[in-house]
Design brief:
By secondary structure, this protein is α/β, with parallel strands linked by helices. 29% of the residues are buried. The chain contains 10 helices and 12 strands. The termini are far apart.
Length: 278
């Protein structure tokens, strides 16, 4: 098995360029911040960027947890990986990761300065320092469920195809971890309720929300909504429309991953004004 390292200080743009470095060397597998990635799919591991503290993030990236290390080791063996690119902030860090995962010694060492100029590195460092943004070299849909409650955006990389056309080459994900210098943040259940209430009151056929409950789990948020509807509304269609609109708006405003929205129609009321018009 061929092991290649890609080293650069934190925030210099390693994860942004990891896919390119791997592709140039015919490598399919990448180890980055606790994850084992194949092309654009997460095979195993837990992202260090999910940790609540910087120390916790470092330990996760070094596979200090035995269960975490075993999970990734098993995935490497089962996929018969021929070559792996390991990302790290120093040669020592990469060597520790390789040893921890019982991988062969590093056969080639690549540094961020080899693939990015001084201006690009400074720009990446400034973005990290001022905005707290981190890149994960996989599409957003791959990790969205694991980053519920984080600010998360897709980063699409295009290449020119012809004179005016562009083709999507790869997608990465931008996250702002809770251990960033910007500090932690919390979104209360009442804030979620206010968003839901705003959406629901604009849907024709809904009288009011009679009960609301939100449960935040590691893999996403589950909502329980009890409704009072106006008699005569197509219940099934209305509820499905409501679920879609609530999920879209809450995810847009909070970056929470909505796992499930359970809606119960508790009762019906007669709209007297509508009856009088008839």
């Amino acid at each position: 098995m061929r092991i290649v390292s890609f080293v650069g200080a934190s925030g210099t743009g390693k994860s942004h360029r990891a896919s390119w470095v791997a592709r140039e060397r015919g490598i399919e597998y990448i180890i980055d911040d606790g994850l084992l990635i194949k092309v654009n799919q997460v095979l195993a591991g837990t992202s260090a960027k999910r940790e609540k503290t910087r120390i916790g993030s470092i330990k996760r990236a070094l596979f200090s947890d035995d269960a975490h290390a075993r999970e990734v080791m098993d995935a490497i063996r089962s996929n018969n990986s021929e070559a792996i690119l390991i990302l790290g902030t120093s040669d020592g860090m990469v060597d520790r990761i390789a040893k921890r995962l019982e991988l062969p010694e590093i056969s080639e060492r690549v540094y961020i300065e080899d693939v990015a100029d001084e201006f690009e590195i400074k720009q990446a460092v400034t973005t990290r320092r001022e905005q707290g943004k981190h890149v994960i070299p996989v599409p957003t849909f791959e990790i969205k469920k694991d980053f519920s409650g984080y600010f998360l955006d897709p980063l699409r990389i295009f290449r020119r195809k012809g004179k005016v056309n562009f083709q999507l080459e790869e997608e990465k994900s931008v996250v702002r971890p809770t251990f960033s210098y910007l500090g932690n943040y919390t979104i209360s259940d009442y804030t979620i309720y206010q968003i839901v209430e705003h959406v629901v009151t604009d849907i024709e056929g809904v009288s009011k929300i009679s009960r609301f409950r939100a449960e935040n789990r590691p893999d996403g948020t589950i909502m329980e909504i009890d409704l009072v509807l106006i008699y005569g509304s197509p219940i099934r269609t209305l509820v499905q429309d409501l679920q879609n609109k609530v999920a879209d708006e809450v995810e847009r405003l909070t970056a929470l991953n909505i796992r499930q929205i359970n809606v119960t129609v508790k009762s019906l009321v007669v709209d007297k004004q509508s009856l009088q018009q008839k």
